[in-house]
């Protein structure tokens, strides 16, 4: 059975990084953008990292420019932005695509292993996200495509997707799921 450990990604420096280096540790994977309405989530994600890194949690970010061109700069610029503006200390990797024919194979695996559960029509934030996707990225509205920046995948110590969190998921929910893995 495939795991995230079967994939190699690229650091902002251009160096290849095999994800098997995270074997045995829970990982939170997030696609990011510096000009997104959800960019403020860097604060909460960094707090999760600070709180749980000593218990083994790894968080890795992948800048993506597929949603309304909200990450127009280079990978290094995206990494620098996160560090300067949000004090991000968890690893940020090179920009990649998460959807379509040019999607990184890691994201194809993540979407297949953690399919989209649908928009919670009872949640106003989820409704607003759905409207934004329909307006700005309608090609990603249906199916298991990543809907927007700051979609998160929680991976267990065996490299399997435990849960997918949409950008509007409450941070308390993500924190509780992390605690269950630790």
From TrEMBL:
State a single Gene Ontology molecular function.
peroxidase activity
Keywords from the named record: Oxidoreductase, Peroxidase
List, alphabetically, the CDD domains matched.
GSH_Peroxidase
UniProt KW Oxidoreductase keyword? yes
- What does the record give as the active site? 36
Biological process, per Gene Ontology:
cellular response to oxidative stress
Task: Name the domain of life.
Answer: Bacteria
Using the record's annotation, list all stretches that form the Thioredoxin domain.
1-182
Q: What InterPro entries is this protein classified in?
A: Glutathione_peroxidase, GPX_CS, Thioredoxin-like_sf, Thioredoxin_domain
Report if keyword Transcription regulation is assigned.
no
Give the family from UniProt.
Belongs to the glutathione peroxidase family.
Spell out the protein name for this chain. Answer: Glutathione peroxidase
């Amino acid at each position: 059975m495939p795991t995230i450990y079967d994939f190699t990604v690229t650091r902002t420096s251009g160096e290849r990084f095999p994800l098997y280096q995270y074997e045995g540790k829970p990982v939170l994977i997030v696609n990011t953008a510096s000009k997104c309405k959800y960019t403020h989530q860097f604060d909460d994600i960094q707090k999760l990292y600070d709180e749980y890194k000593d218990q083994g949690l790894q968080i890795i970010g992948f800048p993506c420019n597929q949603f309304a061109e909200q990450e127009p700069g280079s990978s290094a610029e995206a990494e620098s932005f996160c560090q300067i503006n949000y004090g991000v200390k968890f690893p940020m990797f090179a920009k990649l695509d998460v959807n379509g024919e040019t999607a990184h194979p890691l994201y194809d695996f993540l979407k297949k292993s953690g399919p989209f559960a649908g928009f919670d029509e009872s949640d106003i934030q989820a409704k607003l996200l759905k409207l934004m996707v329909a307006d700005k990225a309608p090609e990603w509205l249906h199916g298991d495509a990543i809907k927007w920046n700051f979609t998160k995948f929680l991976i267990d110590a065996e490299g399997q997707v435990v849960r997918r969190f949409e950008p509007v998921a409450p941070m308390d929910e993500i924190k509780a799921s992390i605690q269950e893995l630790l």
